[in-house]
Amino acid sequence: MTEQNITSNETTVSTLCKRCSASPSVVNLRTEHLCSNCFDKYIRSKCIKRMEAYRVRYSPPDTDTSPRRLLLPLSFGISSTTLLHLLNSQLQNQLARTTRTGFVLVVVHIDESAIDSTVPPGEESMRAVQERFPDVGEYLVVKLEGVYEFPSAVRAFEMGAEGSRGGDWKEKLKDLLGALPSPTSRMDVLRILRTRLIAGLAQKHACEAVLWGDTTTRLAEKTLAETAKGRGFSVPWQTSDGDSPYGIKFLHPLRDLLKKELAVYVSLEAPTPLHPLCFGVAKGKKKYAAVGKGITIDELMTQYFEGIEGQYPSIVANVVRTAGKLVTEGGVVRIGRCKICGLPRDGGGGELVLDAGTKLGEGSSGEVNGNGSDMCYGCARSVHGARPYERPS
């Protein structure tokens, strides 16, 4: 097999694996040539290390309680699909050794076809994934507009008394995103709604943690993007492992791996390639092809880090390590949380006024239910200039 060089796009002459010294290398892992078997062990070890707390020895016996439940958001991208594959292997190994597992998964795909007509319904893709990994736990496809099932997640977005009386969730979501002033604002609010929906689903299904498929590359993108958008204060809560502001743990088992490493991993032919299950890859490439003034901050950071992670992986890792050194202060509890994103805020949001002079959360009587001082600066900027929308009759 021809060697794939992660540190550049060039094809190099095949050499022996530096770890086993027996098989031809297929990957140049940063500075080390590895064969497919050693590369597979490397990827698995990084994930298993982060899942140490969910070994069978730390799980209560089945006679006492049900296995611990963990929610895995599946976008059908390279990272989340790889994470599902690795966790399936871990569960199979636990069963083979001890006849029981340390956890079960609730795999959830968020269907965003309500706001993007080009996105195919997720049921068919989810069935294909479930056929490949039938024993990991439950599989769910939840529409993005289902976030309205959790009032606390969308209360701050309800503009006017009519918005709080219910109605068609799909139309409400489309109206909300359509009222925002820029592509960056829409992508930002969309990410917030998605995160809050996943956190709500995790609590609804009695899960103790959410397992995000974020790689080192993705965490670096998020660190700089959120800082640029005005949420630098909350970066520790968005990128670290542990308790989140949403009342549930957030974990990142792939945080020690680069996205380019996973891109090579899913293309390996042994034992079975994962790439056919990455239904969201083509959509992602199209999504981040935008250039010019219409590009969002998130897209810009994605393009930047995907461009440098091959030749300069240490830069990507240093961004994440630096963010990991930030500590959460007890004063955050005193300051409070942003009413939109739900993250700790720095108190610098200021008062938000919509174009028509209607304050966010103001009812028809003019009574203000909240003001901009309840928002972080990032959310205040995202919804600043949003136009009020009329509910369909």
TrEMBL record:
InterPro entries: CTU2 (IPR019407), Rossmann-like_a/b/a_fold (IPR014729). Pathway: tRNA modification; 5-methoxycarbonylmethyl-2-thiouridine-tRNA biosynthesis. It holds the Pfam family CTU2. It is found in: Cytoplasm. The keyword Ligase does not apply. One of its GO terms (cellular component) is cytosol. It comes from the Eukaryota. Signal peptide: none annotated. The keyword Cytoplasm applies. Keywords: Cytoplasm, tRNA processing. GO terms for molecular function: nucleotidyltransferase activity; sulfurtransferase activity; tRNA binding. GO terms for biological process: protein urmylation; tRNA wobble position uridine thiolation. Belongs to the CTU2/NCS2 family. PANTHER family: CYTOPLASMIC TRNA 2-THIOLATION PROTEIN 2. Plays a central role in 2-thiolation of mcm(5)S(2)U at tRNA wobble positions of tRNA(Lys), tRNA(Glu) and tRNA(Gln). May act by forming a heterodimer with NCS6 that ligates sulfur from thiocarboxylated URM1 onto the uridine of tRNAs at wobble position. Prior mcm(5) tRNA modification by the elongator complex is required for 2-thiolation. May also be involved in protein urmylation. This is Cytoplasmic tRNA 2-thiolation protein 2. The gene is NCS2.
